[in-house]
Amino acid sequence: MLRIPRLISHPGYPPSRREWLRLSTAALSPLLLHAGKGVTARPERFTSASASLPGLGRAKSVVIIFTSGGQSQLDTWDPKPQAPEQVRGAFRTIATTVPGIRLCEHLPRLARLAHRYLIVRTMSHDDLDHGSACYLALTGQFHPRKSSNPPPRPDDYPALGAVLTRLRPHPQLPYTALHINGPLLAPREPAPGQFAGFLGQAYQPPELGNPLEENRFLPVLRLSPDITPQRLAQRCELLRRLDPQQAAHPLTQQALELLRSPQVATAMDLRREPLSLRERYGLYRSGQACLLARRLVEIGVPWITVFFNHNIRGQDAHPNVTDEYGWDTHNDIFEALRDHLLPRFDLSVSTFLEDLQQRGLLDTTLVVIMGEFGRAPLVAKESRFAGSTPGRKHWAACYSVVLAGAGIAAGGADGVSDRHAAYPTTPPVSPADLVATLFHALGIPPHTHYTDPVGRSFPITTGQPVLRWFR
């Protein structure tokens, strides 16, 4: 019997890193058994009049660097040095390579790269808790239980990478979308929005997990020396005869394609990189996750989500372990940012952008640095949370995202927030508009629909691409 290898296990909602290669169809939803049988997605085509739209189809890959927990716009991309101290916070600002753009003093490397990215300072929505807001960010759809921490459900909207897999599967690679350094925990259980939802497990972006554990999963992505391609083909034929339903199942086919695609295993082997470059990225989870993302871009993976922080708030349980920190800084915000979050973020993201540029990949890769929301303008102590010094509450009315590559009009800021970075003073941008922009960069128009396993039609987004972000 053909045995398909599995990845490392994690106690998360399906699929865990072990379960995404599981082939037991008995555990799958009946709907999944019909996935791909006579059901086609409908990626619409642009008309000739729209073919010249800025940014259309400029990206071969999209990389989302997800800052889980709610990165403070005031202490990163949209500082307000003239505001009162209880608003501006404890940090100073520094100049960048773009006149008039200043960043937090703890982002010196990114300040030197400001000419390579665009800061969007007027992202806005009204969902105020991590689980449902992560769902919104990762699917482009509001959760029915807004401002809550719901568990993942099989009828959730699919993650954006799953939608792309449904619409436009990669013709050579076994996977169109991959997740790195997850699953994302919000706060202690896997957050909704990072799974395939109602599309079914056949469209689930595999979760590659902690890149520091590469030695645990790399061996299972390679065939044993005694398994020649001919022998593998014979075992596949045996499986087809003994269990034709399992042999034809999409998960079986994906697993076999993975075994037949040595470039995927090669890309995941970070030991192939010089130690000096690995050190430049940072020898920790988020740094190596960014390096792995660059290697996956090189082999042509169209959609990569890097959970820069796999935990929105792991510092409560592990205050001395920087890898466990998230951006949910209700208290002790300035200590957490200065000592744990900002130094690694500055090093790893700046190295990622420089590496893409030096390898000629940035022109065709859309990099998006984003989280589920921002932080409140007023610095205050919260008695319900651990910590001895003040922090900032959740804030979704105004926050920042950053875009680079793939024709983005880099070297400035789009939109203006008020003097406390609390509300937009220019028209806001919704998560749905951001999603539409990402698909637009891949050449997929916003009115495109896809179908689920029972033939229901869904739009990829309710937003519109922001064309002014492109040159």
TrEMBL record:
InterPro entries: Alkaline_phosphatase_core_sf, DUF1501. It holds the Pfam family DUF1501. It comes from the Bacteria. This is DUF1501 domain-containing protein.
